[in-house]
Amino acid sequence: MNINNKGLWIFAAIAGIALIVTGFLVTNAIYKIKSSENSIAVTGSAKKNVTSDLVKWTGSFSRNIDVNGLKEGYASMKKDLTTLQAYLKTNGITDDTYTVSPVSVESLYNYKQEGGSQLVGYVLRQNIIVQSADLQKITKLAQDVTPIINQGLIFSTQSLEYFYTKLPEARVELLAEATKDAKNRAEKIAQSTGSKVASLRSASAGVIQVLQPNSTDVSDSGAYDTSTIEKEITAVIRVSFSLK
């Protein structure tokens, strides 16, 4: 064997050994990567039916006056407010359960066919917001404002909203239940592959949905339906577990 051939054999032997070593290292690296990614991610959810414990009733009363009647108009609004407060007191609604806004003024114009407009009067308006834990009483008053109108007020109910004030506590409770639900799902999936769920790796809570019972009107940013007394709270959480 000449020197050149001997050199080629030595180079080939070294290259072969290098390939074997490299192959071992690459195989070992792939195994470690797969081991480090040996996990499962699942979504869990939990629901709870609750009854609202706070009602918010928003109403307003107004007066239409002519362009020179601001002074008399404000006097009429003050009298209307006194009448309304007396009505609320008669029905057991105390001063600390409602707030009254300042009087707002809206200008009324008469628009002429030939162009231009003329100020002809004003609308004076005042809002009142009642908040109470007595849902049945406030609901009944808001749904029938005839007694107020019979006393000479131009009154209307703007909105009637129901809230659940213990939502923060319910959220904590539901997220714990949703996590348990996620773990149960992960265990069933893991069993089908011959694995077992080990430790919790990460958890990400989703938005809370507060909706009418059996509603599907969810939102990516969360929803809070205030139209009904009975509500259904839903919590969702995405959890990742390591497997063994």
Can you walk through the features of this model?
- There is one protein chain.
- By secondary structure, the chain is α+β, with helices and mostly antiparallel strands.
- The protein folds into three domains: 1-37; 38-53 and 164-244, Protein of unknown function (DUF541), domain 1 (Translation Initiation Factor IF3, 2-Layer Sandwich), CATH 3.30.110.170; 55-161, Alpha-Beta Plaits, CATH 3.30.70.
- The chain has helices at residues 3-36, 70-90, 135-143, 146-149, 167-192; strands at residues 39-51, 54-66, 98-100, 104-111, 117-132, 154-163, 197-205, 209-211, 223-224, 230-243.
- Strands 1, 7, 8, 9 and 10 form a five-stranded mixed β-sheet that branches. Strands 2, 3, 4, 5 and 6 form a five-stranded antiparallel β-sheet that branches.
Q: Which descriptors apply to this entry?
A:
5-stranded mixed β-sheet; 39% helix; elongated; 5 helices; Translation Initiation Factor IF3; 5-stranded antiparallel β-sheet; 37% strand; alpha+beta; 10 strands; 244 residues; Alpha-Beta Plaits
- Total number of distinct structural domains: 3
- Assembly of the depicted chains: single chain
Residue share in helix: 25-40%
Name of the CATH class of the largest domain: Alpha Beta
- In whole angstroms, the N-to-C terminal distance is 56 Å
Within CATH, the superfamily of the largest domain carries the name: Protein of unknown function (DUF541), domain 2
Q: What sequence of helices (H) and strands (E) makes up the elements? A: HEEHEEEHHEHEEEE
